[in-house]
Amino acid sequence: xxxxxxxxxxxxxxILVLNTYGINVWCAAGKGTFGTDELVVRMExxxxxxxxxxxxxxxxxxxxxxxxxxxxxxxxxxxxxxxxVRAADLKAYLVxxxxxxxxxxxxxxxxxxxxxxxxEVVHVALPMLISAVVLYLAHGLLAAMGIVVAFLCGVALxxxxxxxxxxxxxxxxxxxxGGAASLAFALAEWCGHVQEPWWQRGGWGLxxxxxxxxxxxxxxLNFTGSTPFTSRTGVRQEIDTxxxxxxxxxxxxxxxxxxxxxxxxxxx
Length: 268
Prior knowledge:
Elements: H1 2-7, H2 25-31, H3 36-45, H4 48-51, E1 56-59, H5 69-76, E2 79-82, H6 90-96, H7 101-104, H8 110-139, H9 141-161, H10 170-192, H11 198-221, H12 232-267
Parallel strand pairs: 1-2
Helix pairs in contact: 3-5, 8-9, 9-10, 9-11, 10-11, 11-12
């Protein structure tokens, strides 16, 4: 909202605000919080037809998948036009109400991806901290570090490396990244407890691979709705395909870790 006001500094205009619950326009349009019904309801609540003399709404281009311009016109009498992708282009757009190809172009370069990192880290900070404390008390520093790295790989390293990770689906990309990170901890577990039987060390390594890589893959999957790489149907299809798989592998890793923890306690 602040970015939009800054982009429109000096422009005589009203801003109609829709509550997307902190979700960006693109994702909100897919989830329904930036959609036809929400728009019409907000227009009625604010008595917009009485506030302005014209009957024209300019909506962000990335909200187009959630808003039916025909239905809005039928229900409110307002004409909908979709402006540029970025708020920074609004002033230029308002001159002739024509969006150039560059204004329509959706970019998701490194800088755009880096902007997501602090937001995502804040969202997972509390569960990451709780998980790290629990694992530290149950299994020591290595396990605590492993869960922190798995979280950070999913919300920080993944968006940075996104274009260069192999495979197509975000979930499998996440498994590649999470698998590489968790393998390092699996090897550290193997080398750090040479006094334990090989099957016990191997079991811990497998638990790391199953649980930590699945956590990273799940966090990576969350980026499907915030990039220009996937469609709304593609997001739904990937969720339906991978979530049961992730849950199963994560559950197996967790059960294995619990069993091995009991074995270690009984053996000490």
